[in-house]
Amino acid sequence: MIVGENLVKRFGDFEAVRGIDIRIERGESFGFLGPNGAGKSSTMRMIGCVSPVSSGSLRIFGLDPASHGAEIRARIGVVPQLDNLDTELKLIDNLVVYGRYFDIPRKECLRRSEELLDFVQLADRRNDIVETLSGGMKRRLTIARSLINQPELLLLDEPTTGLDPQARHILWDRLYRLKQQGVTLVLTTHYMDEAEQLCDRLVVMDGGRIVAEGAPRQLIVDHSSREVLELRFPAGTNADFESALADIGDRREVLPDRVLIYGHDGDELLRLVHARDLHPESALVRRSTLEDVFLRLTGRSLVE
Amino acid sequence: MSTLPSVRVWESHLYVMRRIWKTDVLLNLLQPVLFILGMGLGVGSLVDRRVESASTLGDVPYLTFLGPGLMATTAMMIGAFEALWPLLGGFKWGGSFEAMAATELTPQQVVRGEVLWWTTRCGISVLGVAVVLLCIPETRSIGIVWAVPVATACGVAFAALTGSWTSTREFDNSFSNISRLVITPLFLFGGAFYPVSSLPDAIEPIAYVTPLWHAVELCRDLSLHRAGWGESLVHVSVLVGFIVVGWIMCQRNFAKRLHR
Ligand SMILES: Nc1ncnc2c1ncn2[C@@H]1O[C@H](COP(=O)(O)OP(=O)(O)OP(=O)(O)O)[C@@H](O)[C@H]1O
Ligand SMILES: [Mg+2]
Q: Which of A4, A7, B114, B159 is deepest in the core (most CB within 10 A)?
């Protein structure tokens, strides 16, 4: 459905995307993960046919964006990183106007819009001006809008940023339903749990390159241990304990606010720590997540 | 039944206008009406007393001379301003152009829709002025009706030229200078208030290269029933020429901006 080979995006002489290969199948849900500036949005915009490819090749539905941009865009839905709703218009008019861009007859636009407002649970705000919505509600409206042309492919750039936990879970559920209907989902996110929940497969990007690729579970198996022990020492003293902990576990990460120790059995790791007469302020044993994969691959944490 | 892409872009403006058009049209009428009253009656009473002035004006009362030109100046203001802040707003974050660009619309179609919108916007304001002029005995003339499309074209030319510049801007900090350094001088020196031949010879030619002077002249000639074919053709060609140039530059700049 989407095939990119050696994709490069340049802004002047700065390379935002530095030769990535991607292959996304129909019906799949695919994620881009990475820190700020990794090149996720730049890649999404190339796929959305609003940003010409600097070099490499890209095919969407087997078509070339350079020559068939409009045709491709007609079949995809886009949720940009920043909402670009018409804030002076009513919710319902926002959807209808957007639907008209796709040449959907006004009556049909109206029918679909009512349905979509229901879908994102904003039906009761139908006649309000968008300006009066909260940030999370605007986000939901943008998502509803992206579905007006019944897209085969949905591009979501950080869809749940700014949503409260409840709204996030509702959205995950909605996206899951779309996926079941056969819609291909491509999304970027900073949230590990989101990626684990939604993505069949994902790539981790850093500095314009892909540093890892695979199913979320597989990435965790490949790049992290089964469990993690999180220790917090008094503020500013984490580094002092580095040498004392040096041979515990498979691997350690010292972060500004905590120390992570990776190993097969977290409780066993904690016993070893206590045996050395070290007394962290708090200790937590948890399973490894994509966050740990990311830390391992880039040496940086994902959400700064 | 499919609708032309440019018409769909144009429709989106109607949704916004639908809520504010009444006050908008009235406010846009205010300026020309004030000038008709203030200049037409006030200055007119001075000018009309002098025999030499009458011949410079083409043997008509000052109000008759002034009225048709105000159609063109109004269109210029509306067109230019529509292509400043509202246009930039379409490009900045939260902008509607960005939303359009993600759909099946192409930047070319977006520009076409904007041109259509500018035509509508300027046309409505010009019609408003025309109605006022038709109500005043001194300015009443069937030629006012023919002047409506001419003045509208003047507005579109200014919108297209201004828009091609605005679409390369990131910030609006130089916008008020455009109005101070370009629009206001043109308004004063473009020939609406007196024949440009009364200006010093050094400044006079400047008027000839602006769309405004051509529109003012043609509107006036039409309303005074003294438009010759040759001159009219020149005026129309200049207006159309400016629209085409502005339009092409808009297409190039919109494409660069929306697909980068
Ligand atoms: N229009 C542009 N002109 C110049 N540089 C740009 C432009 N858009 C993006 N960049 C640069 O490209 C790099 C990648 O940006 P991009 O928006 O793709 O990152 P991202 O992974 O989406 O980050 P975030 O998580 O912050 O959204 C950044 O260094 C950014 O400054
Ligand atoms: Mg981004």
A: B159
